[in-house]
User: Which sequence fits this backbone?
């Protein structure tokens, strides 16, 4: 297990380094001098030079990469070109909206998908199965931002149960915050819940046709007992993988949904930064999200190996 | 022809998809009303005989806008699938032909890396660097498609390389490149078609999302995503502005997904047997 862990850890670090190089180089090709942009047309050359040094824009491309990547390691993302405040502070504030939103959506998605998938699989071929599958077919086809708009129309504008957008901040209280995140979380969760339901169903159907289920039935367990005691647990492995992948989709998908609801999260920050040409913020947010994806996948891999020893010897 | 009826989802899917492809093609030659002409006096009209789906906030005919928007969506998604296939499939074939070699290793690691970037983030980066346009949306979705096809091709090709007829081809003196092209590719084509349909529908959703946040096609090009973005502030006054473009996306994607499921049932005998 330790050998496998170290090997995966090495590959994790290599992925992180490779991703950081790609992101750094992508934004390195952008023309223009941020220092000149910040100080305006009439800036003196020595002022410009001082600012470039402050922002870490001097030196060779290699030195700049090292100082940027080194900063990332200690949580220093640099200074925003537009606001002249540390990027890490800006991201930190926004993370308190985006992260709870992603977790909220992931929870909803799991709470919907597990029962729906198990229910459909245990009644394979019935009308219940067909209707669950039909709903998931719609769920994967619906653009989630459109679904979000329709929910705003129904639940915010017509019924007035929720506000149409904005975020009161966690200072307003936990429930006020969660209420503001509810419609966005449902919109984000819907397509993921549909995918997860289908995975849960097909994985459970596979497991139900295994020999050990027949053995369990032969031993005298009822269908329900065999399902709950043996099948569901064994069917969970592929479901966990998808769940891990979905977390990254939720973080990235929040970029669009935050814009529907005017939530001050990372997604809004990215778009504001693009229009302000504040590239270091774009760079940092992209880096953060890619890191999250890589680390979550690593965690899923490890959980996998821990649950199923056969996988440790693979590759 | 009777093979079309083997699947319950293929025909409805094919029908829905063809409706939108036809709408896009017809829009090249004819639309009910010119979408570049504004007619403020006639704005936000509900559906009527003159305007089947009503008019938008500038008095433009929504049906015509949806037909032109179909063109944008289908073109972006189709080219993006083309990019993914034309780069991903050769990479996958090459990786499988030299399994375990350095080329395989590089291709698979690069794939993992691209997978760590959700397509939306690729689009955000490209837009930040080069600005927003339909072309950049195509590139972003296309890049995301490459590892999908590379992985699928490699996986399918690997299992084929152990077959006897490949051994026979090797004995006959064919090189790996020729074997990949003449024997492997035709045998993975079915899988690629099914995956192509799925990526096509994902591409339509991605294009809609990108143009909704302003990273896709720019005005005056009509696109479904931007029609939705424009309708958002007016949703309480004129909900039909938001209803029809969204339905267009939903039905196109649904059609393609049903078609993909149906094609898989027909083209992949292994899965068909597993279901029986």
Assistant:
């Amino acid at each position: 297990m330790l050998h496998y862990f170290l090997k995966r850890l090495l590959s994790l670090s290599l992925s992180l380094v490779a991703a950081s190089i790609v992101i750094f180089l992508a934004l390195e090709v952008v023309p223009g001098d941020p220092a000149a942009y910040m100080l305006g047309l009439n800036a003196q050359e020595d002022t410009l030079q001082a600012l470039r040094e402050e922002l870490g824009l001097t030196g060779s491309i290699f030195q700049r990469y090292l100082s940027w990547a080194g900063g990332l390691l200690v949580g220093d993302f640099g200074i925003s070109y537009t606001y002249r405040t540390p990027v890490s502070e800006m991201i930190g504030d926004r993370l308190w909206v985006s992260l709870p939103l992603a977790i909220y959506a992931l929870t909803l998605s799991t709470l919907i998908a597990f029962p729906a998938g198990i229910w459909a699989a245990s009644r394979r071929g019935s009308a219940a199965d067909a209707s669950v599958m039909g709903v998931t077919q719609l769920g994967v086809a619906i653009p989630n931002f459109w679904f979000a708009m329709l929910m705003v129309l129904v639940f915010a504008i017509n019924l007035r149960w929720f506000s149409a957008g904005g975020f009161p901040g966690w200072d307003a209280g936990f429930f006020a915050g969660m209420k503001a995140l509810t419609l966005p979380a449902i919109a984000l969760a819907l397509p993921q819940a549909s995918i997860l339901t289908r995975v849960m169903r097909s994985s459970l159907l596979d497991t139900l046709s295994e020999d050990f289920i027949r053995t369990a039935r032969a031993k005298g367990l009822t269908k329900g007992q065999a399902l709950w005691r043996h099948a569901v647990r064994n069917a969970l492995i592929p479901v966990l993988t998808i769940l891990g992948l979905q977390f990254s989709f939720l973080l990235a998908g929040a970029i669009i949904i935050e814009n529907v609801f005017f939530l001050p999260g990372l997604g809004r920050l990215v778009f504001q930064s693009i229009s302000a040409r504040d590239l270091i913020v774009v760079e940092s947010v992209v880096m953060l999200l890619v890191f999250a994806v890589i680390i979550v996948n690593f965690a899923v891999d490890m959980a996998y190996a821990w649950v199923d020893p056969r996988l440790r010897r693979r590759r | 022809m009777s093979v079309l009826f083997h699947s319950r989802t293929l025909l409805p899917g094919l029908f829905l998809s063809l409706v939108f492809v036809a709408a896009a093609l017809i829009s090249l030659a004819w639309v009910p009303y010119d979408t570049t002409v504004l007619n403020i006096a006639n704005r936000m009209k509900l559906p009527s005989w003159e305007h089947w789906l009503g008019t938008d906030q500038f008095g433009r005919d929504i049906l015509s806008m949806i037909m032109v928007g179909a063109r944008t969506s289908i073109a972006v998604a189709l080219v993006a699938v083309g990019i993914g296939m034309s780069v991903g499939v050769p990479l996958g074939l090459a990786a499988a032909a030299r399994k375990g070699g350095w080329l395989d290793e590089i291709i698979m690691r690069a794939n993992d890396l691209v997978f760590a970037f959700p397509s939306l983030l690729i689009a955000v980066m490209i837009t930040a660097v080069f600005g927003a346009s339909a072309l950049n949306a195509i590139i972003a979705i296309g890049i995301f498609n490459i590892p999908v096809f590379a992985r699928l091709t490699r996986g399918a090709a690997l299992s084929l390389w152990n077959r006897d007829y490949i051994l026979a081809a090797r004995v006959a003196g064919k090189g790996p490149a020729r074997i990949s092209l003449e024997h492997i590719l035709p045998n993975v084509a079915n899988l690629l078609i099914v995956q192509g349909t799925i990526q096509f529908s994902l591409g339509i959703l991605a294009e809609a999302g990108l143009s909704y946040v302003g990273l896709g096609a720019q005005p005056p090009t009509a696109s479904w995503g931007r029609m939705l973005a424009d309708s958002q502030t007016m949703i309480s006054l004129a909900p039909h502005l938001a209803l029809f473009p969204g339905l267009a996306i939903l039905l196109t994607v649904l059609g393609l997904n049903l078609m993909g499921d149906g094609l898989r049932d027909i083209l992949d005998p292994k899965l068909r047997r597993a279901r029986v």
The mean pLDDT of chain A is 83.
